[in-house]
Design a protein that fits this description.
Blueprint: H1 2-9, E1 14-25, E2 28-37, E3 42-49, E4 54-61, E5 67-72, E6 86-89, E7 95-97, H2 103-115
Antiparallel strand pairs: 1-2, 2-3, 3-4, 4-5, 5-6, 6-7
Length: 116
């Protein structure tokens, strides 16, 4: 499982993690997991890969459950330069382009925030 290798690289900020779902079939893979960080914040992961399509959501919330950032690729924001990739910052209304489209890049971003 590639996720475990990524988590090892970020063990300095990861307190615990739980894999709720991991399914692999011929042309698809489904992953749902939760990572708890050393500051109490959590990352809720949904990453589904199908033969020709990928759907993902990385929802980072503070220790009280309030949204910090959610990265996803739901095809709602056509005007963004990184369409369909985008992030919701602090609320669902504030949407910005996003280059963080996988677990590694999201964890790199979170590590910079937690380490500051």
């Amino acid at each position: 499982m590639r996720m475990l290798n990524v988590l090892k690289a970020f063990q300095s900020i990861v307190k615990t993690y739980t894999v709720e779902l991991f399914e692999r079939e011929t042309n698809c893979k489904r992953l749902k997991a939760t990572i708890t960080f050393i500051d109490g914040s959590k990352l809720f992961i949904k990453d589904y890969n199908f033969s020709s399509e990928r759907k993902y959501s990385y929802h980072w919330a503070d220790r009280y459950g309030k949204l910090i950032i959610r990265w996803d690729n739901a095809p709602h924001w056509h005007q963004l330069t990184t369409f369909p990739h985008h992030k919701h910052i602090g609320s669902s209304e504030r949407v910005e382009p996003s280059l963080e489209i996988d677990l590694n890049s999201v964890l790199m971003f979170i590590k910079r925030q937690i380490s500051d």
